[in-house]
Write a structure and sequence with these properties.
Elements: H1 5-25, H2 28-61, H3 65-119, H4 122-137, H5 139-163, H6 165-173, H7 176-212, H8 214-220, H9 223-231, H10 234-276, H11 281-296, H12 301-321, E1 344-353, E2 356-366, E3 371-376, H13 382-389, E4 397-402, E5 405-406, H14 412-418, E6 419-423, H15 433-437, H16 446-455, H17 459-463, H18 480-494, E7 498-502, H19 510-521, E8 528-532, H20 536-540, E9 544-549, E10 552-557, H21 559-562, H22 566-571, H23 580-592
Parallel strand pairs: 3-8, 3-9, 6-7, 7-8
Antiparallel strand pairs: 1-2, 1-4, 4-5, 9-10
């Protein structure tokens, strides 16, 4: 362990503070207006009791009555205008900061990529975007409100001192218990707010997972059990919420007792001053106003709750922003790829997830133009290796090279243009089918999009849709196999020298998969293809097989050679596989037919 939890929390709190400062700077005009309006409001409210007291004295003396009440009217107008501007500036500043925080947070999640998904679930990220970002965006308004209340309290004590120093001393003597209560509330409420948001995010994550697996849940008849699983943290959430309300209730009634008691004592002292001739009747009225202003700072529990909530929300946003994103070369910087066909090399690559080692010192050389199948038992690191090959994640140790150039040295545009991915469950991004196939590749013509769809065996069902390639994704009812074919079409349309298929044909029927492989073979000449394979038939069509076992490359050889090993055959035991004779026949057929399928790209 590198650091204790307490040190980590401290660092996150410091990051949250810097984050809030940067956020306020994003809206300098509204921030300045908010602070200025608050300052005017504080000054006007502090002038009001004195002006009212002077008006009473002027009325009693019969001198300067009109002028005194004109000052009161001017002060009231200033207070109303200041409050109006505070509301406008607070809302506008909060909106600007919230938009900025959401943009930065969303961009950070995208930069973290797959590694970020492992650390922060989709529901957790959604909770931070929709709940914590707006909470942190309102921090300036909450702070200005709290500071304004404190400033008015200090100014009110000065006003009491100006009327009679004994009043100020009496107030200050009775103040420490109230201050202590407020500090205890702030500390306790901060912990509870953080816990409350953490539990909410956990529920959101469970809900997102359940929605993603809705078909499986319905098919297995476990809807009721899944509802219980998603809502299981509600008890803890309720207890935390009740704890927060209990803390607020406790400080509210305690302050509610101390504040009137202190007010009574100060006003009693002011009454004695009037009877002794030290304080005028107008001074008594002014003293009552200043006491209310001074004690009002401690009666604003809601404002304190706003500050606590904003700090807790900012800490949760900063927690994501503090995670180091993979180093990316700046635009225009980075090495260019050499001429080549996608030669891929892993040098001493190790990947960890906490204490678990997923890949352990992997050394692997994939010659350019070769079709490589990656096989292994579940948890052996197949998908992780595929993610590493295109730098969707970075290794903890070691280096990956594409045509002799480290992936970390390449500019993002160069790497993304060189590597194309197709996944088992592709995300259908874009407004229409055509936009989905062209996603991430600008300048594609309609002919190129349709050619990619034909290669992926998707053109037929796309043309049967109501508007063909212009059908909105949301209006296209697609099966799992059809979605996979669109994902394959998108990967084909991207081009590049390295194609990575992470179980991307698992939902295709045998005939469609065979047709796809034949159509794909001609396009992959001079390119490298890495296939995460769960079927023996898929592995049999590759030039080489990387057999992963417990995070290491146990063997790198053709499928026919590895098939003699019973441990290798056991890898495919969980899925329908051809017999040894069938596999060997398949290999011999590939050899005699010019290595149809993935293997035909040698050359």
């Amino acid at each position: 362990m590198s650091r204790s939890s307490r040190e980590i929390d401290k660092d996150e709190a410091m990051t949250a503070g810097r984050l809030l400062v940067r956020g306020v700077r994003r809206a300098p005009a509204w921030s300045s207006l908010l602070v200025a309006a608050a300052a005017v409001g504080v000054c006007a409210k502090l002038l009001f009791p004195a002006a009212l007291g002077n008006a009473i004295n002027a009325g009693l003396e019969g001198n300067g009555f009109a002028a005194a009440y004109a000052r009161i009217a001017a002060i009231l107008v200033a207070i109303m205008l200041a409050d109006l501007l505070i509301r406008l500036a607070a809302a506008s500043c909060g909106a600007v900061v919230t938009v900025w925080l959401r943009g930065w947070l969303f961009g950070q999640v995208l930069r973290l990529g797959v590694g970020g998904q492992r650390q922060f679930g989709a529901g957790d990220v959604a909770a931070r975007l929709t709940g914590d970002a707006p909470g942190a965006g309102g921090v300036l308004a909450a702070l200005v409100s709290a500071v304004a209340a404190a400033a008015m309290a200090v100014g009110a004590v000065g006003g009491l001192w100006r009327i009679d120093w004994r009043l100020a001393v009496t107030f200050l003597v009775g103040l420490p218990p109230t201050v202590l209560l407020v500090r205890m509330f702030m500390a306790r409420a901060s912990e509870l707010f953080v816990d409350y948001r953490r539990i909410q995010a956990g529920i959101a994550t469970r809900l997102v997972d359940a929605l993603a697996g809705m078909r499986t849940i319905r098919a297995s008849g476990t809807a009721a059990r899944e509802v219980k699983r998603v809502l299981a943290p509600l008890g803890e959430l309720g207890a935390t919420g009740r704890g927060l309300w209990a803390t607020q209730r406790q400080v509210s009634w305690q302050v509610g007792l101390l504040v009137p008691a202190l007010e009574i004592v100060v006003l009693a002292m002011a009454g004695l001053g009037v009877s002794a001739g030290r304080i005028t009747p107008g001074g008594l009225l002014a003293a009552a106003g200043y006491v209310q202003i001074a004690l009002g700072a401690f009666d604003q529990v809601d404002s304190l709750v706003g500050v606590v909530y904003a700090r807790a929300a900012a800490a949760r946003v900063a927690q994501v922003l503090a995670v180091p994103a993979p180093a990316i070369a700046a635009v225009g910087a980075g090495q260019r790829l050499r001429r080549g066909g996608g030669g891929l090399e892993f040098r001493g690559v190790t990947v960890r997830a906490g204490a678990q080692v997923i890949l352990n010192q992997v050394n692997l050389m994939v010659p350019a133009g070769v079709g490589l199948a990656v096989v292994g038992h579940s948890g052996s690191g197949k998908s992780t290796l595929a993610l590493l090959a295109g730098r969707l994640v970075d290794p903890d140790e070691g280096q990956i090279l594409l045509d002799g150039v480290p992936l970390t040295a390449l500019a993002p545009w160069e790497l993304r243009a060189a590597v194309a991915y197709a996944f088992e469950r592709p995300a259908l991004l874009g407004g229409t089918i055509a936009e989905m196939i062209a996603f991430g590749r600008s300048g594609l013509s309609r002919d190129q999009i349709e050619d990619a769809a034909r290669t992926a065996q998707a053109d037929g069902f796309v043309r049967r849709l109501p508007d063909g390639y212009d059908t909105p994704i949301a209006a296209a009812p697609l099966s799992g196999g059809e979605a996979q074919r669109l994902g394959l079409a998108r990967a084909i349309a991207r081009g590049g020298r390295l194609l990575i298929l992470d179980d991307a044909t698992s939902s295709l029927d045998t005939a469609t998969e065979a047709q796809f492989e034949v159509a794909l073979a001609g396009l992959l000449t001079g390119r490298t293809c890495v296939v995460v394979a769960h079927r023996a038939a898929t592995a049999a069509k590759a030039d080489l097989v990387a057999w992963l076992d417990a995070g290491r490359v146990r063997s790198l050889a053709p499928h026919a050679q590895l098939w003699a090993d019973p441990d290798y055959r056991a890898v495919f035991a969980a899925s329908p596989t051809p017999s040894r004779t069938q596999a060997e026949i398949g290999v011999r057929r590939e050899e005699t037919e010019g290595r149809v399928g993935i293997a035909s790209r040698r050359g």
